[in-house]
Amino acid sequence: MPVHSTRLAALRDQLARQQLDGFIVPLTDEHLSEYVGAYAQRLAWLTGFGGSAGTAVVLTDGAAIFTDGRYTLQVREQVSAADWTYVDVPQTPVAVWLAAHAPAGARIGYDAWLHPQIWVDDTAAALAATGAVLVAVDANPVDAIWADRPAPSPAPLTVQADAHAGVPSAAKRAAIADWLVARRADAVVLSALDSIAWLLNIRGGDVDHTPVALAYAILHADGATDLFVAPGKIDDAVRQHLGNAVRLHDRTAFAAALHDLAGKRVVADPAGSVAAIVQVLAAGGATVVAERDPVLLAKAIKNPVEIAGHRAASARDGAALTRFLHWAATTCPAGTETELSAAAKLLEFRQATGCLIDTSFATISATGAHGASPHYHVTPESDAPILSGQLYLIDSGGQYADGTTDVTRVLPIGPPTPEMRDRFTRVLKGHIAIATAVFPDGTCGGQIDALARAPLWQAGLDYGHGTGHGIGAYLSVHEGPQRIAKPDYPGGQALEPLRAGMMLSNEPGYYKAGEYGIRIENLLLVEPRTIPGGDPDRAMLGFETLTFAPIERDLIDPALLTPHEIAWLNAYHATVTQIIGTQLDGEVLQWLLEKCAPVG
C-alpha cells in the first residue's frame, strides 16, 4: 500500500480509538502561520501535498482535500485520487462540504490550537444544521500516529536593530498600550509570530523563509509585556535588548498564564488567534474582547527607515536577479539546465551579495507546463529540463536585514509564439494599470483589482489568484491586512483600505494548463499623490514601484500597448538601468542596456 494510503488508514484507526467520526487537518500551526515549521506539517505528512495552503477532512468512509486555484494542478499531481476527493475553495468551503457529507450524529474532531474561533463558530453552526457536532480534541490524532514527527526548531532569537526597525520596541509597546487604554481593555494576547517579532524588534529562525521565533506575548495596558518562548533561545544580547519591561517565561507556561487574566478585559483577535486561546480565556473568567490584532495595521504601514531599507534591499536584489536573467538567457537555450539547477544558480547570485539571510519563500522555478501551476514547487522528482520553445517562469525573493523582496519574471527559451506574446503583453498591460493607478484615500484593493484583469477579460481570459499581497520589513513575504484581489477574497483582506506606507505586490498573470504560465511581479509602495486641478480637500493615493529588473522585451507586442503604457515601460526600464546598471559591468551590463532599450 502507498505510504500516504497507509497513513490515512492509520488515522482512521486512531479516530475510532478517540471515538471520532471525522477529523479536520489544516495546514497551519498554533499561531495560524502561513509557512510553518516541519513539526507542524501535518497536511503534507498525511497527504503528500506540498503547497502552502490547504485543508484535509477525513471521514470514516471518505476524505477530501481543499485547495484554491493556485494549486488546482499541483494537488492532483501530489495527492492520490484513489484516497482523496479534490475540492476547490472558496467555491466550496470546508464547512459547507462537511454539512453535506457528515452523517447525522457524527462527531467531527478538530484541534482548537489550529483553527481560529470564527472558523469554529461557522463550522459548528453548519454541522448543527445536519445533526453532526464539532468536537475539540485533547490530543491531535495525527500527532498520535506520526512516529518520527520533528521537534520544534531550537534556533536562537536575534535583535532587529533600531537602524533597521526605525522605531524602538518600547515606543511600539507604548502605542499598543495606549490603544488598549482607549478601549478600556487590560491586555492583548498576541500569537501571530510576525506581530511579536515586529513589536519586540526581534527575529528568529524557527520557520523556513520567515525570520520569526515560536512565541506568544501578552501586552498589558501599562506597556509591560510577557513573552513566552523556549528559554534556550534567549542570550544576553536579546535579554538586554528586551529590558525589564519584557518578562520572560517558558513557552509551555502560556496556557496557564491565560488563566491568570481572570476578571480582566482581554483582547484576542477572533480571526487571527486560535480558538484555544479564546476558549481558555473565557473558561478562566476573563472577558474576551473580539478585536483585530492591533499590531497588524501598525506593522503594515512602513516607517521611513523601513521604506529606505526596502529600497536598498530591492536594488541589491534586483542586481542579483539581473545577473541571473542574463545567465538564463545565455545558458538555458542549450537545454543543459533544469528547474532545480536554475534555482540554485539564482541562489548563488543572491548569496554573492554577502547580505542574503534566507530566501523569502521556496523559489518557484517552473518551465513549460509547470509554469501553469502558479505555486508550483520543484522537487527532485518533478525537476524538468528547460527546453527551447518553452516559457520559463522564476518567482523568488530574498530575506535581508533591511528588507524582504518578492519578484517574478518570465523568459522565452527560444522564439516565443504569437500567442505567448499576446498573453504576456496583456498581463503587462494589467501590471501597468495597477502601477499607474491613482485613487482616493480609503480605496480598498478589491476596488482596483479589476484594472489588472481588464486586458485579459477583453480576450476572454483571467487568472485564479489575487493580484497583490502585502509584504513585511524583513518579515513575512505575505503580510496583511491589505490585499489587491477580487472583493470576495477569503478573509476580507481585499476590503481593507489602502493607506500610505503600505507595501504590496503587483502580480497579474495568465496560465495555460499543460503549456505555460506568465506572471509579472514587482513590489509597490502606497504613497500620497497630488493631482493638478483636483479637489484640494480630497486626499489621493498612488503607487511607487520598488522592484527593478528588466521585463522581457522579446515577449512584448508593442502594437498592443497604448502610448501611455509604452511611456511607462520605457521610463521603468530607464530607472532599472540607473539603479541596477551601476552595480553591473561587462557583458551583463551590455545585456541589460539592450533589454532596457526604449520600446516603440
TrEMBL record:
Pfam families: Creatinase_N, Creatinase_N_2, Peptidase_M24, Peptidase_M24_C. Residues 540-599 form the Peptidase M24 C-terminal domain. Residues 310-527 form the Peptidase M24 domain. GO terms for molecular function: aminopeptidase activity. Residues 7-118 form the Creatinase N-terminal domain. Coiled coil: none annotated. The keyword Protease applies. Keywords: Aminopeptidase, Hydrolase, Metal-binding, Protease. Belongs to the peptidase M24B family. This is Aminopeptidase P family protein. It comes from Sphingomonas cynarae.
